[in-house]
Design a protein that fits this description.
3 copies of one chain form a homotrimer. Chain A has 352 residues and is an alpha/beta fold. Chain A contains 5 helices and 40 strands.
């Protein structure tokens, strides 16, 4: 992790230095956490009061405000912050020392690439492939025949079951389980006979899997997460699900068996999808949405059962007035009855 | 794992061989994954195009189609496939070598049965009983006094807390926690004083618990999962819940404290049940259903709050028309007002 | 764990002994599990039939019933039970032997306090602080620079990521992940560029975190759980969430990024909160509630989208009658049309 001068950082974010362009900066942190030698940022006016007390040596902001040190002025401080935080963030190669911890159990038939980092108490089974520059933190278990691509980052307590395939640059967070058995039984009377799940899970390149997710292996074939897709914590992906590229699934969502998602799909938190449906490219499912049938490309749905988002919103707005509507309806019934009486027609049976 | 001839397989699935009955088959796989010497199946017409390119030596199908090799013709290829996949699947006894890994920490007071497999970095506490033919994969932790029945299969990263009882042939998937403390506090003003949870969890024979499930121990007594019940991933079972036999609970469902489920109950994904209710034998709860009161035997409920499924469906169908109903109702109010004026009655206060 | 006489216990719970006040009691258990020398309780009449067969030597109850042994009579047996179970429960200091297991990997730069218990296969990183009397069960991983306060109890398979701060007397159940990366990406066309998450998680004193929870570290700054707050199993807390003191979050709930909860908030099971809102002090969210905007202090909300609980209840009650309302409305429309015809006005376009 190199140092940068304030001038270099300003050039990278397209900003203007008010102060000492030659100042060396060696890190970035939030306005409350930053220390001397670090740069911080102000993007949200509710943190303005920290300007006078932060220990940061420099700040990225739209204006100087009460800050005494050097400032990089930009129009969008948050975007500039994202660039700088990436500038200062160390790759797994830098953060974790290379080498294999002596307290790791690695099968003689496993193939281990160059410049890997394998932590204490990892267990690597027969015929596993761990490719170059993989970082595997402590207490990870990789079963027989699984394949981990170049530059993967696997956090502690992850389980990768037999024969699963993990593409290059995949990140898997702590406690995630890749390749657990799909939930499949054949009924014989009241009994449920387990159907062996002989397929695998394949995560393509640049996928990220959140903490404590569960991705089940296919009954036969492949449960597939397409390249660049990002999955938040505690998400359930059932057997034979296929997810396209660059899709995003928020925390605690669940996708039932054999459902397919296209590219660029967004599933919000706690949403649930039944099995055997198709979510078209670019479609979106709202938080807690319960999707019971296929969604065409580009369509946004929400609610339970999920309907087009604009209809769902109208229904929910209308439902607020439902209790009053019932009262008003009874009143109108009575007024119509009175009119009918006035016209000589008696009350109808339906009103009784 | 023995080989079978095509004729033997045909007899087992009740099918007819078109081709070489004496051909030796040594495995089964999906139509895209199968290799020479394996059998595959075609149950879904969308995979028909793979018939001409699969490397499988034989196929289970309703018709030969474009396949050049030998065929076992059956009327229901999927059912036949299930029989054959079970035929070729190896038991845990076959898949995992017997013996205790030297890097496992086992208390001197633990009792270990015959023909067990205990993986690297397992930790087995005082007075634990591990019965015959148990397969315990790496990194499993079993606390003091727990009892694991014959032929259990425990995947990596499982935690079994003190004194819990696991019946014969139970399967527990990675990351599941059996016997964590129930969520119980006594309020003293604003503070929550923890109530020690001194009960246990008991899983009866042939139960299967999904990955990253949490099954809490009872406050006193037993949280019980009855024999043959199957629980999918990420399910929460709270303290003192009792589940009958052969029930099925899909992923991400949650059962609150002291609720009881009868036999043969089905709880769909992401459903939630409040505490202290009873779900009768054979009842069913739909996906995302929120069950707030007891459900009689045999009844299906869905929606939030959960109502009989047929009523729920009517309500959801009707709600689609609610926005229009509100408009139509205002129109009707105006027409009645006009009628009332025509009759000499003035507008009523309720319309203002 | 000392013994108590029945007379001592009666004094502690404010009850009256019917029988042998000098009898030594050395434990407490449920009425079905209790053995000789233990005390049990009867708070629920459905367990009355066990009175004649329990092996307990004494019982806490409102009346003697069919029990032959000594009784402590109290008006509220459940409250008395809670006091006695706490009396007999052993602290982690008593339950787990002190010392560091030889099969634990501890960095030379870690600081380990007095009277700690560190289990087999724990991994403790550089510059970690483990304070006095911490109990860390097997297979726990604590990354670089994290700080564990006095008297914490950390169950197996827990992950505590780098630099997170755990206050005194915190309890973390098995499989929980503290400090996983927040789910943050910057979009570049269809691609999602990971935003490094450089903040931390801070759990204040007396917090309890359930099994398999995921608490994400802040983008910058702190994801904070205030003192005395209790979190059930499988809960998701996103980056930069702030939770006040003595709040309670039930199982499978999820809180999205940057949302703030005040003190004494109650979130029921499977509820979900969108990001960037504020839940006021003492507010409550019902089970499966979907909260889409801020909730004022003291207000209870439920349903999706969450509304004040009393309104939600009215809407759900009214919705039951919606299918009939649609039928009755069409009937009323026809009657009004008939009236209009009688008055000489023709049918209106809206009725067609």
């Amino acid at each position: 992790m190199a140092d940068y001068t304030l001038g270099e950082i300003a050039r990278i974010v397209g900003g203007e230095v008010i102060g000492d362009s030659g100042m060396k900066i060696h890190g970035i942190a939030g306005i409350r956490e930053a220390v001397e030698g670090q740069i911080t940022f102000l993007a949200n006016s509710k943190y303005e009061s920290y300007l006078s007390i932060t220990r940061a040596s420099a700040i990225i902001a739209a204006e100087n405000g009460n800050f005494n040190g050097s400032v990089i002025r930009v129009s969008n401080p948050y975007l500039a912050f994202l660039k700088v935080v990436t500038l200062f963030s160390r790759s797994p190669m830098e953060r974790y020392p290379r080498g294999i911890h002596p307290a790791a159990v690695i099968s003689e038939t496993a193939s281990i690439g160059r410049e890997v980092s394998i932590g204490a108490y990892c267990v690597i089974g027969d015929n596993v492939v761990v490719s170059d520059r993989v970082t595997m933190l402590p207490l990870v278990c990789v079963d027989e025949g699984a394949n981990i691509g170049d530059d993967c980052l696997i956090y502690p307590h992850v389980e990768i079951r037999e024969r699963c395939e993990i593409g290059p640059r995949v990140i898997i967070h702590s406690g995630a389980v890749i390749g657990s058995d799909g939930f499949g039984y054949a009924r014989e009377g009241c009994l449920h006979q387990k159907i062996p799940q002989i397929g695998i899970v394949k995560l393509e390149e640049d996928v990220e899997i959140g903490a404590n997710c569960t991705i089940d292996r296919a009954t036969t074939g492949v449960t597939l997460i397409g390249k660049g897709s990002k999955i938040d914590n505690l998400v359930q992906i059932a057997h034979n699900v296929v997810i396209g590229e660059n899709s995003v699934i928020a925390a605690q969502a669940g996708i039932s068996g054999s459902t397919e998602l296209g590219d660029n799909v967004v599933i919000a938190g706690q949403a649930g999808l039944v099995g055997h449906i198709r979510i078209g490219e670019g479609a979106r499912v709202g938080a807690q949405g319960g999707v019971t049938k296929s969604v065409p490309p580009g369509v946004s749905v929400s609610g339970y059962p999920a309907r087009e988002h604009s209809l769902s919103r109208k229904i929910y707005a209308a439902s607020t007035r439902l209790p009053d509507l019932l009262k008003d309806f009874r009143d109108l019934q009575n007024r119509v009855k009175a009119l009918e009486k006035g016209l000589g027609s008696g009350p109808t049976a339906e009103d009784d």
